[in-house]
Amino acid sequence: MKVTQLDCLCVILLHLLHTAGSEKFEVLGPTDPIVAVAGDDIILPCYLKPNISAEDMTVDWLNLDFKDSRVYRYQNHRIIRDYQIPYYRGRTSLFEEELWRGNTSLKLTRVQGTDEGRYKCFIKAKSWYDDFTIQVLVKAVGSKPVVSIEGHREGGMGLLCESEGWHPEPELAWLDSKGVHLSAGPPETHRDFKGFYRVKQHVIVQETDTNRFTCRVQQSRINEKMETEVHLPSELFDYATPLRMAFIVLCCLGAVTVIGLALAIYCICNQKDYLKKEKDEIMEEKGK
Ligand SMILES: *[C@@H]1O[C@H](CO)[C@@H](O)[C@H](O)[C@H]1NC(C)=O
Ligand SMILES: *[C@@H]1O[C@H](CO)[C@@H](O)[C@H](O)[C@H]1NC(C)=O
């Protein structure tokens, strides 16, 4: 059979009609990572090109860093809450009034440490689907370090530094007054249920001419640091001090006891005298 020009034209026309009828689209979003400050509300942008309605489509938001990755699902005009990652419960929504123009952005409220990750916006129509992945970084500046004095340790003074509420994980360092790093114990890091980091580290310091020590907690990726300086009075380093203190306390206790006893005895004697006097008086009265 010979293919005529008319046949060709018909095939092309049919193809064009078919393409126009099917819902072909692209899913787009930002290519740069989104930096979110802990506690803020953020929008993860995602939209269809061309801007056709997504109201009849399935919109899936996934966090690819979780095994069961569902953050949000919109399907058959409803929100599907099954299999949602518990961290996202009550914190996610679509702009439903924007779906008709192909805006499938996700709103995420009260950003926390566990929100960092790669998010896929996956959109499926009856005969077509596409997706776009965006990166979210979470930034949280922790608390000012708290330094506590732990007392005499192995020939020096034990100090402990603690700071919490960081993201990403920060580094902790102990420094002397010249900014020189002191060798300290192993750093201890914990992650709370919202994914924020708490760090702490013990150090044993020796007496110096200034007795000033600094605990610094910093996160270079977000370019933030917090530090606390302590000044230890040199008497703290005096080894006789604890014994002397104990001796003084014992002496004081002793003195208080002695005074107390003396007072008690005095009172008892007085009372006896008084009773005796009263008795004498009664006798006297009877004798009259
Ligand atoms: C869809 O996009 C076109 C241009 O690409 C624009 O003129 C139109 O206003 C948009 N429609 C909506 C509902 O945003
Ligand atoms: C989608 O809707 C939200 C909320 O109104 C808006 O902030 C965002 O800019 C919209 N995105 C696009 C691509 O239109």
From TrEMBL:
Q: Which GO terms describe its biological process?
A: regulation of cytokine production; regulation of leukocyte cell-cell adhesion; regulation of T cell activation; T cell activation; T cell receptor signaling pathway
Give one Pfam family, short name only. Answer: V-set
Q: Where in the cell is it found?
A: Membrane
* Gene Ontology CC annotations of this record: external side of plasma membrane
Q: Which organism is it from?
A: Salmo salar
What are the UniProt keywords, alphabetically? Disulfide bond, Glycoprotein, Immunoglobulin domain, Membrane, Signal, Transmembrane, Transmembrane helix
Q: What is its main location?
A: membrane
Name all Ig-like domain ranges.
39-121, 145-231
Q: Which residues cross the membrane?
A: 245-269
- Signal peptide per UniProt: 1-22
For this chain, the family text in UniProt reads: Belongs to the SKINT family.
One GO molecular function term of this record is:
signaling receptor binding
Q: Which Gene3D superfamilies match?
A: Immunoglobulins (2.60.40.10)
Q: What is this protein called?
A: Butyrophilin subfamily 1 member A1
Gene from which the chain derives: BT1A1
Looking up SUPFAM superfamilies in the UniProt record yields:
Immunoglobulin (SSF48726)
